[in-house]
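Worked example 3 (structure in, sequence out).
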């Protein structure tokens, strides 16, 4: 019974380590893409074109 508990704890620990590494690696990409998307929406709003695709998102 003790080995099952230790095994479950080890599996959860490894899973959390992998998820943490993925989040740490992908977070800068998420931030950069959010900034680029925000700049795109700002450009579309400022340009004043009648043909706006912002509503089609």
């Amino acid at each position: 019974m003790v080995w099952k508990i230790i095994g479950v704890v080890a599996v959860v620990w490894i899973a959390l380590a992998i998820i943490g590494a993925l989040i740490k690696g992908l977070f800068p990409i998420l931030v950069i893409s959010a900034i680029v998307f925000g700049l795109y929406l700002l450009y579309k709003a400022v340009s004043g074109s009648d043909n706006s695709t912002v509503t089609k998102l």
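Notes: The chain has a mean pLDDT of 87. The radius of gyration is 22 Å.
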